[in-house]
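Posted in: Structural Biology > Protein-Ligand Complexes

Title: Requesting predicted complex, 1,3-dihydroxyacetonephosphate in pocket

I'd be grateful if someone could produce the 3D structure tokens for the following input. Sequence and ligand are given below.
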Amino acid sequence: MTNKLRYFVANWKMYGHLRSLNSLNKVINFRKKNKKAKNLKIIYCPPFTLLHAFVQKFKNSNIKTGAQNCSFLSSFGPPTGSINASMIKSLKCDYVILGHSEKRAKGENDKIINKKISSALKNNLKVIFCIGETILQKRKKMTKKILLNQLNKGLHKIKKKENILIAYEPVWSIGTGLVPKCEDLNRVISFIKIFLRNKMKFKNPKVLYGGSVSPQNISLLRKVLNLDGFLVGGSSQNSKKFIDIIKKTFI
Ligand code: 13P
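-- Reply #1 --
Done. Output follows.
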């Protein structure tokens, strides 16, 4: 096992019923058997409807839970269908994913994301802040510019940087089976970390990769040594595949 701390975040997106909880037993047993692996962090982000049940299920198992979004409003209020950070925290969740491209595509802009990050941190949630370029932006060689813009605006006036994980998720790799070449990924992750350290005053920036991570490509992705973990969508909905990804990273 590597000594480096590695995060494995399962983003279940719009997937799962209460009956899906049974499939988590495999992961709980896996975590128990690897109790001493302090450098291994597993975090599940199910839909809101399953958050409470997941927290209960993971009691005493050293697996953390997170939401997939939250309102930018910190107080109770009228927006029907919204859930704020304090409501999430009150369930004993620890994390929230913000800035996901699937939300950005529906109109969430950097300013709103910035407010959400601020509200989440105020309510003592840790933030998994997603950034990434589209295929068009990549073709136009705008990746760095886009990432800088998202980081600058999303993290504007944000403190508590130690409670933020960055997830680099190229939009073109999400759900497509495509992943960046290792050397390209390594370059982008270094670029993000240098920026976070030098310009954003992060002491120890942590950056995850997300986008089509699977048991098939993890042996390659794990070679990108400056990564601190993975944000896994589709493959995390199958416990066997998710465990496989974790095992192969640590072999
Ligand atoms: P996939 O792993 O299904 O490509 O999804 C990645 C993602 O969006 C995780 O947040």
